[in-house]
Fold this protein.
Amino acid sequence: MSLKERYGPWALLVGGSEGIGEHIARKLAKDGINIILVARKPEALAATAQILRDESGVEVRTIQLDISRDDMLERIQEVTDGLEVGLLLHNVGGAKGFGPFVDCKLDHVMAAVRNNPIALTKLAHHFGGAMAKRGRGGILMIGSIAGNAGGYYLASYSAAKAWNQILMEALWAEMQPRGVDVLAIPIGAANTPARIRSGTIDDDQMNVVSPEEVAQQALDQLPHGPVYVLPEHRDFFDSLNTPQRRESAEAQRDLLLKMLPSAQAKV
Ligand SMILES: NC(=O)c1ccc[n+]([C@@H]2O[C@H](COP(=O)([O-])OP(=O)(O)OC[C@H]3O[C@@H](n4cnc5c(N)ncnc54)[C@H](OP(=O)(O)O)[C@@H]3O)[C@@H](O)[C@H]2O)c1
């Protein structure tokens, strides 16, 4: 079956304007799937929409929206109601910098929660419900290996990504018999525009992959959920998924301190 037969005619890509989301959009569009892109920055949204139209001639709609808003689902439904959305992608990180949990502004701590558990739960419930009724579709979540152990200076982000991953695992088991593929891809480091802008890419400390590679593997593995870890990131994933939770938390702390020398000064 082609991607279009399996996941068409429309795909909703939340976090689809750049990086991994953009590359997934381009691959889906080349297969003839119409695309709805959601992101905050209008310029990147418009530019990616134009690339999709030029490359593939598919229909593209854009929604400029911060998904941390309480009315995010209603705003998305204003565009998607009446369209058959066969694929949902969640590709939003949403961490607002690094820092000790209790010293961060509550609003910053909550951003990761709103952008991940709350948004993904609402989206998966709404769009997944329609897919289950139709007996086909897919839900894909780009996660983080940080969601597999408490993230030092990234507490709410790592906890939020843990929720996302566990939700995907549960939905995979429930939705597979109903014809819906569900996959989480927890990644270690990818040189996406956002990550490059954050200044935290360190090739010596981590196996950095390209957004295009993540996109290709995500679509290849979508029928084989619930969780897929890129070969480049398996050692890191395995090192955190141990019953020795103190070691996992310490490993995350040590990595963060190496990655962010300024964090060391604050300890
Ligand atoms: N890059 C890495 O090294 C890395 C490592 C581990 C996990 N991940 C995961 O990989 C995914 C992609 O990350 P990324 O590095 O590309 O960064 P990102 O900042 O999450 O950006 C990805 C996309 O999401 C959009 N976006 C971000 N916040 C949004 C919001 N509040 N509302 C609506 N759209 C929003 C961005 O566009 P706008 O900014 O215009 O909104 C962009 O299109 C995330 O799930 C992240 O957790 C990335």
